[in-house]
Write a structure and sequence with these properties.
Rossmann fold; alpha/beta; 4-stranded parallel sheet; 6-stranded mixed sheet; 13 strands; Hypothetical Protein Tm841, Chain: A,domain 3; 280 residues
Amino acid sequence: MTVKIITDSVADLPPEVVKELGITVIPLVLRFGAETYRDGVDLDADQFYEKLQTSPAFPATSVPPPDAYVEAYDRLAGEADAIVVVTVSSRLSATHEVASQAVGQMSKKCRVEVIDSLTATMAEGFIAMRAAQAAQAGADLKEVMAVARKNIPRSDFLAAFDTLEYLRKGGRIGRAQAFLGSVLKINPLITLKGGLVEPAGRTRSRARAIDRLYEFAAGCAHIEEMAVADTACPQDAEALVERLGAIFPAGRIYRSRMTPVIGAHTGPGLLLVAVLGDRG
């Protein structure tokens, strides 16, 4: 049985991983006023952050159109016996719902299973990666789904923000709303729990926030994969990769500038560490 894997652009997978593992990525949609872009396709990270500084319109995001999933399903149905779709948390986005509904609009016959990752960024990406690796190794649909679901609780991230204003405007702030009431200059930390944004602490300095990211990774008893991602703060990211090399091979740490649709909700200055493994 041949199984193909689909995920969405929020997974923030590096292009070389997508190509190597044969993963299909469905882009979310980004809007600046009347201008519409496919995430990571029509607008890359550099172009996005330049536009963020110059556009009078605040960026908005939306789910992929159903046709994007239908086209991918029908195309892959000619190559595979089954398709597994790993989506961004359904509690953050309706992408999971769109992917599920699109199954009923297929013109070709192929079994499609849609899995809610309950997470985002490379934490979602790691789940899709493990599913794709299992599929490439010859696993059948049941086995691929089991691998994906097994790794959902094993995939986690911690992110340090300069500001939560973008999350607030985008309506994705969850319980981290409590941070907005502080009159102090803080560097908030967030994660996802149960698919929702949750506060994970606050620090009084950027340096201390970065310390917390390192401590988060170092607290894992066993790490299989690691990623460092940023929104327009590459120097901080590279310094963190070098530091994390003390606990995980730096050459194996995936680096990414977060896809524009993530940047639209976080703004510049976000630094994130994602891990796949077991907590201590």
